[in-house]
Design brief:
By secondary structure, the protein is α+β, with helices and mostly antiparallel strands. It has three helices and four strands.
Length: 154
């Protein structure tokens, strides 16, 4: 079987995780202790975004922002905001692949760290664990690309 990929191209592409860290975390329980007396039928609203900062040539900080608000009726049980960050070495990729790496691949690496931090913090706050389902960052990126193309065409 013949290898059709140019070995020189593969040698030029480099990806590495330099560091993964918590950039910011906030946990609020504005209606405690009364909220613990309520019948627990929570409703959750979650917002997700990411931010990219170029630190140096081929070195990027990617920050995954997750905000979850859990309400019981009209009362906010808790609000948690996590900014999970990572520093990534991304070298030798074409622009479209670099965009994919920064907006899909890196957030996918950061999400399990953020999910564990959210679950742990919520539990320590006296609530049942908030178990976040996996997120398909590749599909989100494809959707954003498609919407961007639609906006460009109009």
């Amino acid at each position: 079987m013949e290898n059709t990929q140019n070995p020189a191209d593969a040698a030029q592409e480099q990806f590495g995780i330099q560091n993964v860290y918590i950039k910011d975390i906030s946990f609020e329980t504005p209606n405690s202790p009364q909220i613990f007396m309520e019948e627990w039928k929570p409703q959750m609203d979650m917002e997700l975004s990411n931010k990219i900062n170029k630190l140096q040539e081929d070195l990027f900080e990617v920050v995954l922002n997750i905000t979850a608000t859990v309400k019981v009726g009209e009362k906010t049980a808790f609000l948690i905001e996590v900014h999970q960050a990572g520093i990534f070495l991304i070298k030798g990729f074409a622009q479209d692949k670099l965009s994919y790496m920064l907006n899909s691949y890196c957030p996918n690496i950061l999400f399990p760290f953020a999910r564990e931090l959210i679950t742990s913090t919520v539990t320590r706050g006296g609530f049942q664990p908030l178990l976040l389902a996996p997120i398909n960052f590749e599909a989100l990126y494809a959707q954003q690309q498609e919407e961007g193309q639609k906006n460009t065409l109009n």
